[in-house]
Design goal:
The complex is a heterodimer of chains A (329) and B (303).
Chain A lengths: L5 E16 L4 E17 L3 E5 L6 H8 L7 E6 L2 E2 L5 H7 L3 E4 L13 H11 L6 H14 L16 H13 L5 E5 L7 H18 L2 E6 L2 H7 L2 E6 L2 E7 H6 L4 H8 L40 H5 L5 E4 L2 E3 L2 H4 L4
Helix pairs in contact in A: 3-4, 3-5, 4-5, 5-6
Chain B lengths: L1 H5 L13 H10 L2 H18 L1 H4 L38 H37 L1 H16 L2 H12 L3 H11 L1 H15 L3 H8 L4 H37 L11 H8 L8 H27 L7
The chains are: A alpha/beta (329), B mainly alpha (303).
Chain lengths: 329, 303
């Protein structure tokens, strides 16, 4: 399953959006959508990224692929820093790195037939030696993702949400990539369809040897689907851990409160729920020190002043919390 | 039972292959406004294309004995043989109106094509690239809008002389702003759609994104605006010709006929009235069709 060779290494990734105000549109401060995130992805694994809405997980996924230009940081894929490539070089690299979008209604061009949509990446990279070869590949892909190849000439609006997501998956597979960023691929779908699409993604992972970065806000889905999980809060990664360890013994107080909110199928099971007080702080004006200190049940004095660094805890676990760096309260 | 065995299994997709144009046609046939609009336009186009075969006489042939002859169906002495009467030098009004359709359609359509090409290209660039490119193009548009069209037309005509092609060019150049603004706004919305990001993710260049993903999704609005603009430009052509700044007076044009007729409006009302009705019919036709297209081509309303 998980092999140790690193496919993608992210170092200090940042995405800041300037806020301009005043008459001369001077940049007064920044929204730090993604602030200094580092992690690595191993070949063949599924890395989950979770967090509540607005925490920057989608931005992270898109900045990795440079669909959003990162402000700073390195994204090293097979020894090449994607962030420093020219536009043309990056376009060539896109063959290996694909994305599946959240909204299957917005991510398909309504003016193109399904066949054209799936074929387009192959047209751009001039694969399969011409139109007839590409059409055959399109038919094969449609079968693989569970669509009828006869429906090639139809338009996206003639399909259901689940079917459209399958179209998006077929498009991502058309270039036979090694890494796919799945940006909340099932959160727009009915619950009954979600597991079908997840199973399809898992089958395809085995078949093609894919590596996934799976972005989600749904902890149950992530638990089912991922090998390792990174937890984000307010643009920062607070914990990164193999799945089993994370669910058994969450280290960061934020992870603990998240996990305590996951519904479980035993109505009589007793457990402690950690309810966070207050709202998520404004990312344009994040709290000093640890961004979580305003809501943290274990907040200490140092948390208000000093930002905790993301440190290894052994067993492939990382956490950014003063509880662990300073020997606890 | 033998027949049942002989029958081939029904193919999986028995859906009748009705294209989107087929659907459009069906809805068109159910819409009276669109039908009337199309009918009026067909009338004008047929007149323009087949003018030499339809027109009862040569439009330039003057008959001084039959000056300002009334329409034949109004003439009590039944001397007039002209269906819509004649003008002040005895030319057959019907023939001149039929030939006049050529000028109106040509000016209307060609000038809009010119504005469309300029406006759409600039609008795509401004909307897609944004930043300073957008600022430059949109300030250019403001300047263009601030410049009075009639003044611009008069200056050009005064320097280079009047003429059909100059008129088309003047109209074309001065009306691009509408297209540019429309396209820019729509492009700014479309380029934020996820399918544009998806196109970028599969390695599409900006050029490919613009013409494969952005342009097709703003095309319907462009067609609607173009149709409505043809009507406006036909009116502008008629106005300019009316004030003597448009088409050469030797060519039969509705605006010029209107101008000729206004001196006789009390004694021979038909000279000015019939060209006016011709303008109205054509403009109404384009407007009805444009309104229908606007309702129809909105992809959100399509079933």
């Amino acid at each position: 399953m998980t092999t140790s060779d690193v496919l993608l290494d992210v170092k200090g990734l940042k995405k800041y959006y300037p806020i301009k105000s005043g008459f001369l549109k001077k940049t007064t401060h920044y929204v730090k959508a993604v602030d200094d995130i580092s992690f690595s992805v191993h070949s063949g694994e599924t890395l989950g990224i979770v967090g509540e809405s607005g925490c920057g997980k989608s931005t992270t996924g898109r900045a990795l692929l440079r669909l959003i230009e990162p402000t700073a940081g390195e994204v090293i894929y097979k020894g090449v820093n994607l962030a420093s490539l020219s536009d043309a070089e990056m376009r060539r690299k896109r063959k290996d790195l694909q994305i599946i979008f959240q909204d299957p209604f917005a991510s398909l061009n309504p003016r193109m037939t399904v066949g054209e949509i799936i074929e387009e990446p192959m047209v751009i990279f001039n694969l399969y030696g011409g139109e007839s070869g590409r059409k055959q590949k399109v038919a094969r892909l449609m079968e693989e993702v569970g669509l009828k190849p006869e429906h090639m000439e139809r338009f996206p609006h003639e399909f259901s949400g689940g079917q459209r997501q399958r179209i998006g998956i077929a498009r991502a597979l058309a270039l036979e990539p090694t890494l796919i960023v799945a940006d909340e691929p099932v959160s727009a779908l009915d619950v009954s369809i979600q597991s079908q699409v997840l199973n399809l993604m898992r089958d395809l992972q085995k078949q093609y040897g894919l590596t996934y970065i799976f972005i989600s806000h749904n902890l149950s889905v992530v638990k089912h689907f991922c090998d390792r999980i990174g937890v984000m809060y307010l643009g920062r990664m607070v914990e990164l851990s193999p799945k089993r360890e994370l669910y058994q013994e969450p280290l960061h107080p934020y992870t603990r409160s998240l996990l305590s909110a996951v519904p479980i199928a035993k109505p009589k099971a007793k457990r402690e729920r950690i309810i966070l007080s207050g709202d998520v702080p404004n990312p344009a004006n994040p709290p000093s020190g640890c961004a979580f200190h305003t809501r943290c049940p274990d907040c200490m004095d140092i948390c208000k002043v000093e930002r905790p660094s993301f440190v290894p805890m052994g067993n492939g676990r990382y956490v950014a919390c003063h509880l662990y760096t300073n020997g606890g309260g | 039972m033998t027949t049942a065995v002989a029958e081939k299994p029904v193919p999986n997709s028995p859906k009748p292959k009705r294209s989107k144009w087929g659907k459009l046609l069906r809805r068109f046939l159910r819409n009276p406004g669109a039908m009337i609009g199309m009918l009026l336009l067909v009338l004008t186009v047929v007149a323009a294309v087949f003018a030499p075969f339809i027109a009862p006489t040569d439009p330039d042939q003057a008959d001084l004995r039959a000056r300002l002859a009334p329409p034949s169906w109004l003439d009590e002495e039944s001397e007039s043989t002209h269906l819509l009467g004649t003008d002040q030098v005895g030319r057959d009004l019907l023939s001149r109106i039929i030939y006049g359709a050529r000028v109106s359609l040509m000016v209307g359509i060609l000038s809009v094509l010119i504005s469309m090409v300029i406006g759409v290209i600039l609008g795509l660039i401004a909307g897609f690239y944004g930043r300073w490119v957008d600022d430059v193009i949109m300030r250019l548009a403001d300047v263009q809008l601030a410049f009075p069209f009639i003044l611009f037309a008069i200056i050009v005509m005064a320097i280079f002389g009047a003429g059909l092609w100059k008129l088309i060019l003047v109209l074309g150049i001065s009306n691009w702003v509408g297209f540019a603004r429309l396209v820019r706004g729509q492009v700014m919305a479309v380029k934020e759609m996820e399918y544009v990001q998806a196109a970028r993710a599969i390695g599409a260049t900006n050029l490919r994104i613009i013409y494969k993903h952005v342009l097709p999704n703003v095309m319907s609005s462009i067609i609607v605006l173009a149709t409505l603009n043809v009507a406006v430009n036909i009116l502008l052509e008629a106005s300019l010709t009316f004030i003597g700044m448009g088409v050469d007076p030797s060519i039969p044009a509705w605006g010029g006929m209107l101008a000729d007729g206004r001196n006789y409006i009390e004694t021979a009302w038909w000279v000015a009235t019939f060209p006016g009705i011709a303008i109205m019919i054509t403009v109404l036709g384009f407007n009805l069709l444009g309104d229908w297209l606007r309702d129809e081509l909105d992809p959100n309303l399509r079933a």
